[in-house]
Design a protein that fits this description.
Order of helices and strands: HHHHHHEHEEHEHEHEHEHEHEHHHHEE
Shape: elongated
Largest sheet: 9 strands, mixed
Radius of gyration: 24 Å
Strand content: 5-15%
Number of strands: 11
Number of domains: 3
CATH architecture of the largest domain: 3-Layer(aba) Sandwich
């Protein structure tokens, strides 16, 4: 039987987590050795529970055969921590996964990466910022790594792909499942030029406890982590703190004091994260750590949202209809915005936007200054 089968069987052994698996490998040298060890020695091991020992003496080989069949498919790979292809930066963390399942190009895992994370429910401006930073940093030679979640994660992957560059998605399920389901097509696109990565066995469903575990891999693969938008109680802050523990760089983009999604970033900045306004701020920190493309350029103003040219005057909402106000208010966000950018975001005509702005200003929901509009805290 191939050695990889023993790795997969050890991975599926109940009661054996990441730390225990690493300790077992230190004690027994290889998974095959563990399975070939006699029952008495396994029973006496302080690392193993009774149910673990029972499984080791009678593994579910039929399930392992399905795992092996998956690995034989084109574009699928299983990388062990003893394999030279295992990403060296990830191996440095305190609890590296013993196995990585990869769909796509495993060589990308060895390249210079920047993690971009943030809110699952970001503002429009947050989405645009994440996509713009991801696109520009991809063009500078960094691989963008994130978690395929809704919001900032998805925008970051999309921003990299929009510049025809690969991106890496680390997921919290088995690679035979996509979570969230609405990102299925995004996952397919990522796997075609980049890589989908998981430490979890095939068939693993989206369990809440697995996502913080996933986060340590996102930060562990990367030279640094950029947080775009995050509330005070956010999984993104967990990722950032993991990056700090892993001795990696942490970056945060500030925002309006009225935006609750800026508070997590402001907290990180107070704790020592680098305040980021342009890609220069990131590249000047990471450049000494990796070889980036020459000619570092400032952040491009990528207009991710585009006017829907199919709209006609008949599609324009009635500015006096209150049901349109909250929807339009979301386009303004909490950061200052010009009418030109509101046109790009909403796809509405300048006349309609001007009327809506006047109504919202009279209602005390926004204010204006020097040609920019600001959403007021409610």
């Amino acid at each position: 039987m191939d050695d990889i089968a023993y790795w997969l069987a050890l991975q599926r052994t109940p009661g054996i987590g990441t730390i225990t698996m690493i300790k077992l490998l230190e004690q027994f040298d290889s998974p095959r050795h563990i399975f070939e060890t006699n029952l008495a020695e396994l029973t006496n091991s302080k690392l193993l529970r009774k149910n673990s020992v029972l499984y080791l003496k009678s593994p579910d080989w039929k399930t392992i055969e399905k795992d092996l069949a998956w690995a034989e498919q084109a574009n699928n790979h299983i990388i062990t921590i003893q394999n030279p292809a295992y990403p060296s930066l990830l191996k440095e963390i305190a609890d590296p996964p013993a196995l990585l399942f990869v769909t796509g190009d495993p060589a990308l895992l060895q390249q210079n990466q920047l993690a971009i994370v943030g809110s699952r429910n970001p503002s429009r401006n947050g989405n645009e910022t994440a996509a713009a930073f991801a696109g520009e940093l991809s063009q500078q030679g960094l691989i963008i790594t994130s978690g395929l979640a809704l919001g900032i994660d998805g925008a970051s992957h999309a921003g990299a792909l929009a510049t025809n560059n690969p991106t890496i998605a680390v997921i919290g399920t088995g690679l035979d499942k996509v979570y969230p389901a609405r990102h299925h097509q995004l996952a397919v696109k990522i796997s075609e030029t980049g890589a989908l990565v998981s430490e979890f066995s095939l068939g693993t469903p989206p369990i809440a406890v697995n996502f913080p575990k996933r986060n340590r891999i996102i930060s562990g693969l990367s030279l640094g982590t950029l947080v775009v938008e995050a509330a005070l109680k956010s999984g993104s802050l967990i990722t950032a703190h993991m990056a700090i523990e892993q001795n990696r760089e942490v970056f945060a983009i500030p925002g309006s004091i009225n935006n609750p999604l800026s508070k997590g970033c402001h907290k990180l900045i107070r704790e020592g994260a680098k305040l980021v306004e342009t890609t220069h701020d990131i590249l000047e920190e990471l450049a000494p750590l990796c070889e980036l493309n020459e000619g570092i350029a400032p952040l491009c103003e990528l207009n991710i949202a585009r006017v829907d040219q199919s709209k006609t005057d008949n599609d324009e909402p009635d500015p006096h209809n209150t049901e349109h106000h909250d929807k339009f208010l979301h386009n303004i966000g909490f950061d200052p915005i010009s009418i030109d950018n509101l046109v790009l975001r909403s796809g509405l005509s300048i006349d309609t936007i001007t009327s809506l702005l006047l109504v919202l200003e009279l209602q005390g929901k926004i204010t204006s200054s020097n040609g920019f509009y600001y959403r007021l805290k409610t």
